[in-house]
Design brief:
435 residues; 19% strand; Rossmann fold; alpha/beta; 6-stranded mixed β-sheet; 2 domains; 8-stranded mixed β-sheet; elongated; Nucleotidyltransferase, domain 5; 16 strands
Length: 435
């Protein structure tokens, strides 16, 4: 179809960026002062930034634009001369009119607008110059981010509506967190997979190595991961506890991830932990499988947690998880529907031993001994479990929860299973025997 179009029409269509952009690459519709495009690698952040700058330059002849990167070399290599940079993205007639002066770090654009390159390694270079807009690339890797941002922001005072675009891969640095908490900041973004132009082979290759890990969730999924102050499981501890899976990972029915190199015959025991929802329309039903390896280490094997099901529905999911893993026991909290698990397991013909436990302590208090197991290497994650890990990282020492959702249902189910595997046998009490 494109080949049949007259040259003028084809050129006009090719130059119409909104027609080609994928979701997340276009500026937000709502009112904003700072647009943060937080996304995985290969999402198309650089293309989005270049197109935004060029569109502003077309509409505002004579505009002054700041291009800020970690170093001046990176700004030149990515923002100006890169494959998705300003020179490559500009329309043919615009490119012919552009004058790039690397020694002066200045790009004269069609229509009279000028873009100036700055380095975040030299915040003082932004003290004084004034601009209409700024494009800041990879702010999360700037070494002197706060000073650079503050100087740039103070010089952003030309025109009726000065604005800044930040394109960056997520990393929980102070400057980025402060910016996201500022009034007038709008956040968009997405995963690497959102870009339909990325080779599928690349996606498969990087996901095979990094999917579900902290590095992968930030670099590929575009998720900003922070440590909660006083967390029982820091993000560093979670990564150290992840078992190296040489054979990759398998996906069981129900969508949970599990280690491919931990077969059932390598496990001495398997327990399914269950944290039932308080009501039919309440929280999720936490269902987590854990196993005790022949090496004496307890492993998280699978997360089968479900939401929005009736008591009969989620109880059947418990039975299914027990069948998948060849479980020896199901441990369910009796406070919120544990009896239902027993009824359905029996109705489904499951003769597994079922242990109903009563929660006499808060979730965080119950989790502390299990977190200690992870700290000393007695418990590990046999694969990647992003939703479960987020809840683990939200549980705080001394009580409290700052993770996703209202309640750490997945983490609580894991704690019940780990407690049964590793902490369920009370030490023998000393006694007197007659000889």
């Amino acid at each position: 179809m494109l080949e049949r179009l007259p040259d003028a029409e084809r050129a006009a269509l090719e130059a119409d960026w909104p027609s080609w952009a994928h979701e997340g690459q276009l500026p937000p519709d709502e009112d904003w002062d700072v647009w943060v495009l937080l996304a995985g690698r290969g999402f198309g952040k650089t293309r989005a930034g270049a197109e935004w700058v060029l569109a502003f330059a077309r509409a505002n002849p004579g505009a002054a634009i700041a291009l800020v990167a970690a170093t001046a070399e990176e700004a030149r290599a990515v923002m100006v001369e890169g494959r998705s940079g300003l020179l490559a993205v500009a329309r043919r007639d615009e490119r012919e009119a552009m004058v790039w002066e690397p020694s002066r770090r200045r790009l004269a654009m069609a229509g009279g607008a000028e873009a100036f390159v700055y380095s975040a390694a030299n915040p003082e270079g932004l003290r004084g110059p004034e601009h209409h807009i700024a494009w800041c690339d990879e702010l999360a890797k700037w070494k002197r981010a706060e000073a650079t941002w503050d100087n740039m922001r103070l010089g952003l005072r030309l025109g009726t509506r000065p604005r800044a675009l930040v394109t960056t891969t997520p990393k929980a640095v102070k400057a980025l967190k402060r910016l996201l908490a500022t009034k007038g900041t709008v956040l968009t973004g997405g995963a690497s997979r959102s870009n339909p132009h990325l080779p599928e082979a690349f996606i498969h290759a990087v996901e095979a190595v990094h999917k579900g890990t902290r590095f992968g969730r930030q670099g590929l999924d575009g998720v900003l991961i922070e440590d909660v102050a006083g967390a029982l499981w820091s993000r560093g501890l979670i990564e150290r506890s992840r078992q190296s899976v040489g054979g990759g990972s398998i996906v069981t029915s129900g969508g949970s991830h599990a280690a491919a190199n931990l077969a059932r015959e390598q496990l001495n025991r398997v327990v399914i932990g269950v944290d039932p929802p308080a009501s039919a329309d309440g929280d999720a039903c936490g269902i987590v499988a854990c196993g005790l390896g022949a090496d004496g280490v307890a492993y998280v094997l699978g997360d089968h947690t479900v939401s929005g099901l009736s008591p009969d529905g989620w109880a059947r999911k418990v039975a299914r998880a027990a069948e998948i893993w060849g479980a020896d026991r199901v441990v369910a909290e009796a406070n919120n529907g544990g009896k239902m698990v027993e009824t359905v397991l029996r109705g489904a013909g499951q003769r597994l031993p079922l242990k109903l436990v009563h929660a006499s302590e808060a979730k965080a208090a119950r989790a502390e001994p299990v977190a200690a197991l992870f700290e000393r290497g007695a418990a590990k994650l046999a694969g990647a479990f992003p939703e479960l890990e987020d809840e683990m990282a939200g549980l705080k020492m001394g009580g409290g929860y700052e993770g996703p959702g209202r309640s750490p249902d997945r983490a609580d189910a894991m704690v019940w299973a780990m407690t049964e595997l590793m902490l369920g046998i009370a030490p023998a009490e000393p006694r007197v025997r007659g000889l």
